[in-house]
Amino acid sequence: MKRPREAAADVPDAHGLTVLHRVRASSKLVPWHVAAVTCIAACPDGSVFAAGYDDGKVEVFDGALFNCLARIPGSDGSEISSIAWARAPGDAHWRLFASTLDGSLLELSCQQLQPIAATDSFGGAIWCMRPAPAAAGVVKQLAAACGDGSVKLFAVHGAVAGAEYVKSLPRVEGNVLALAWHPDGRSIVSGGSDGCIHCWDVQRGTERQRITVGTSSAAPPCVWSLTVLRDGTIVSGDGDGAVQFWDGRFGTLLARHQQFAADVLALAASPDGASVWASGVDPR
Q: Which parts are the WD repeats (predicted)?
């Protein structure tokens, strides 16, 4: 399964990349291959943000000046799917984690410019990874949406590199493509290729509720993006181009917005939950 992509304006080369510029070196033309940005995550303290690319590299930028502070090379076939920042008790600084479609959860060092620890997902490709809500400047838990139909939970410990696998929530049909934490940190919502939103109790590991996002009897649309507002309202973006708002307690549909012609791949909400932004495959 592949994430939908926006079509390039120019004709791509044999590798599927569009040549934007060629640099002359040693009397030869050297192709300049541009990697697509797949994810962006800001450090909770606002000082920096990191961007992941489809060639596996990660870059860290100054949050005020936007200049690149660190560039961590990737490896072939390790497309970055998500980036997260975590900080366990005892850590002096925020730590950078990245998930890949080859099923790895990496901790990256901005000083050494390389991964310093890798943890297997135990569930195949990681389509999405999200940190638990910050509490008193601490984020010590990560959740990963995996290709085997499960959400895996990982713990981050102070002064110990990498993330420790903790447990798996029950598997559902298809791939889990998106997830979001409730602001209280006690529950997670996930969605995927089964066309449903699953609401999980993190501590008990049980499913509290299941919401079907499709509006017809045809094949259900993939749920590509999720976020949970401060009041518990669930917002979903799907393969039909719809952004839908759901009552977090009863699972009833509150509003549906059909502003897109294709998959909605990203959602973001203001801290107060008053505004929600959406983006997807089409250029709207």
A: 169-210
pLDDT of residue 220: 86
Structure pTM? Answer: 0.86
The rounded Cα 267 to chain-centroid distance in angstroms is 10
pLDDT in tens, 253-274: 999 999 898 999 999 999 899 9
Chosen CATH of 169-284 out of 3.30.1310.20, 1.10.3900.10, 2.130.10.10, 3.40.640.10: 2.130.10.10
Residue 241 CB: number of other CB atoms within 10 A?
20
Name 151's bridge partners: 145
Cα dihedral sign, 198-100-39-115: positive
Pick the CATH number of 37-134 from 3.40.50.300, 2.40.128.630, 3.40.50.620, 3.20.20.70: 2.40.128.630
Domain ranges of the chain: 37-134, 169-284
Residues 133-140 have a mean pLDDT of: 85
Model pLDDT for residues 107-117, shown as the tens digit of each residue:
999 999 999 99
131, HSE (Cβ side, Cα atoms, 13 Å): 24
The secondary structure of residue 139, as a DSSP letter, is B
Asked if 122 and 165 touch (Cβ cutoff 8 Å), the reply is yes
Average pLDDT, the chain: 88
Q: Is the pLDDT of residue 18 over 90?
A: no
Tell me if 58 sits within 8 A of 74, measured CB to CB. yes
Q: Please report the sign of the dihedral spanned by the C-alpha atoms of residue 3, residue 270, residue 149, residue 94.
A: positive
Token couple for 208: 């509290």
Secondary structure, 3-state, 183-198 = CCCCEEEEEECCCEEE
